[in-house]
Amino acid sequence: MCDSPLTGITRNPWDERKTPGGSSGGAAVAAALHMGCLHLGTDGGGSIRIPAGFTGVFGIKPTFGRVPAYPLSPFGTIAHVGPITASVEDAARMLTVIAGPDDRDWHSLPHDPRDFTIGLAQGVRGLRMALSIDLGYAKVDPEVAALVEKAAGKLAEAGAIVVHRDPGFSDPTETFRTLWFSGAADVRASIARERWPLLDPGFDRIAAAGETIARSDYIRSVSARGDLGLAMARFHRDFDVLLTPTLPIAAFDAGELAPPGGDRADWAHWTPFSFPFNLTQQPAASIQCGFTGAGLPVGLQIVAAKYQDSLVLRVARAFEDLCPIRLPEWR
Questions:
Q1: Residue-wise pLDDT tens for the chain (331 aa)?
Q2: Is residue 222 part of a domain?
Q3: N or C: which end of the chain has fewer CB within 10 A?
Q4: Total of domains in the chain
């Protein structure tokens, strides 16, 4: 969690004892502390939304291919590129500029001349929103759950039609681990073995686990990923957006790879709301929705169907108008 053997520990600006999350934690901290307006994050399982949630800024993982990437991530079509900013409008302006095709990235979407700032202020009246506090299987801190419930209530007061509804898919952790860990193993294999001791210990453990994954398991995970994408496409026939917590917990101690009691070799168990939507390639954003009693920010995740990036931004902007993003003061 932004704890590098080379550069040291990046710390949360709300509490320097806590992590900002990662892997784009430096970008989120910079956004929170006004160190520039526009910051780029890469999200292969939550690395835009996790630090945005832990630091209280705005981050959006666009539809896969909306922002081209070169070279392609070793994690393939799970990894997205997108903005981390101090406001929704800044992210919309940034996305307008960085979106578009690039012939070096054969996954990039066709040319789309849209300005993502257009329609930001349309509000949420009449939009159909599903609120899922736990996706049907995740364990969530009660304080986080209460803040997300309250946020959904504010959107309902603004005219949205909000109902409690889980999306109905089973826990995709093993599908994600199989695909992501295999990519990590491939990265490590490209590095001379004598240099492996220099790798981040957490990454090294994941890469080692990836080496043990059978080809048949990988193929089954690719198929399961397709089933998940289809399930969410059907879900969005009834709902414009899905609302969830960004994370089930507030930021934990800096220098740790996982909260207390968790598996330090695997971060998927404490990020249950982010990586499913890398598998489905949907646009998903995190926006600050309140603070714990300890003064740490909590994020609301907004997810829409593929290609509906403008809708995610519109809902986020409406919520930002209701509950303006609060940033830490300079010290």
A1: 677 777 788 999 999 999 999 889 999 999 999 999 999 999 999 999 999 999 999 999 999 999 999 988 888 899 999 999 999 999 999 999 999 999 999 999 999 999 999 999 999 999 999 999 999 999 999 999 999 999 999 999 999 999 999 999 999 999 999 999 999 999 999 999 999 998 888 889 889 999 999 999 999 999 999 999 999 999 999 999 999 999 999 999 998 888 887 665 577 889 999 999 999 999 999 999 999 999 999 999 999 999 999 999 999 999 999 999 999 986 5
A2: no
A3: C
A4: 1
pTM more than 0.90? yes
Phi and psi angles of residue 16, each rounded to the nearest 5 degrees, phi first:
-65, -10
Task: Compute the distance between CA of residue 278 and CA of residue 49 in angstroms, rounded to an integer.
Answer: 11
Write the DSSP assignment of 278-295 as a string of letters: HHTT--EEEEEEEE-TTS
Cα dihedral 136, 177, 309, 59, rounded to 10, equals 90
Q: Is residue 121 part of a domain?
A: yes
- Written as six digits, the tokens of 210 are 């990836």
Which structural domain, as residue segments, surrounds residue 161?
Answer: 3-166+227-322
